[in-house]
Design brief:
about 230 residues; mainly beta; UDP N-Acetylglucosamine Acyltransferase, domain 1; about 5% helix
């Protein structure tokens, strides 16, 4: 009986089984019920939890966390400190930079017009997720779009176009409804912006200069982590 069968049997019988994360060569950790194919690259201190499958050709950085039932396909790349919650499939063409948060059951796609009887493996489109971006639970990201750094996609949103950096988007289809700080708190700015404004986050005190493209941390400002932006 393998780890998956033992876990399912124990659950059916009401038995509490201790989860086991085992360290692999390279300094990352994998639950006994998960599979990591030869040829996958995983960084130190990353944790792969229950019932996951990391395919050959996937690249995962350091200090990441893959929750239960996560699939990482070939041709994907996750930066450092990426948090993937339960029930997320990361398909070929998806690239996430450092500090990205992928909420429970959010959805990536990689083909815009799939048919069961037509192979479109040569048509996979790239989806780029910028540093520090957060994608809420059950949101859907249509392939071929880019999500700017530190943007925030609300739960259940359907992203059909590029999302600007620091934008807060929600709805179906997703639209910009505001702007958000690197620390995750909404900034006191209207959705429609004009150049020349300034705003300071009321929570972490990061100072932003505003243009028609959105807010950006003012050079020399101190961010929520206490580091200087240059």
């Amino acid at each position: 009986m393998d780890a998956r069968e033992r876990a399912l049997l124990g659950r059916a019988q009401g038995v509490s089984l201790v989860s086991e994360l085992r360290e692999r060569p390279g300094g990352y950790f994998v639950h006994e019920s998960s599979y990591v194919d030869d040829g996958a690259i995983i960084g130190r201190e990353t944790r792969v939890w229950h019932f996951c499958h990391v395919n050959r050709g996937a690249v995962i950085g350091e200090r990441c966390s893959l929750g239960q039932n996560v699939v990482v396909m070939p041709g994907t790349r996750l930066g450092n400190n990426v948090k993937v919650q339960n029930n997320v499939s990361i398909y070929e063409g998806v690239e996430c930079e450092d500090d990205v948060f992928l909420g429970p059951s959010m959805v990536f796609t990689n083909v815009t017009n799939p048919r069961s009887h037509i192979s479109r493996k040569h048509e996979y489109q790239r989806t780029a997720v910028g540093r520090g971006a957060s994608i809420g639970a059950n949101a859907t990201i249509i392939c071929g779009n880019s999500l700017g750094e530190y943007c925030f996609v609300g739960a259940g949103a359907v992203v059909t176009r590029d999302v600007p950096a620091y934008a807060l988007v929600a709805g179906v289809p997703a639209r910009v409804i505001g702007w958000i700080c690197r620390c995750g708190v909404r900034l006191a700015l209207p959705a429609a912006l004009s150049a020349g404004g300034e705003v300071t986050c009321g929570t972490c005190s990061t100072h932003y200069t505003v243009s028609e493209h959105g807010p950006r941390p003012t050079p020399g400002a101190i961010d929520a982590a206490g580091s200087e932006r240059r």
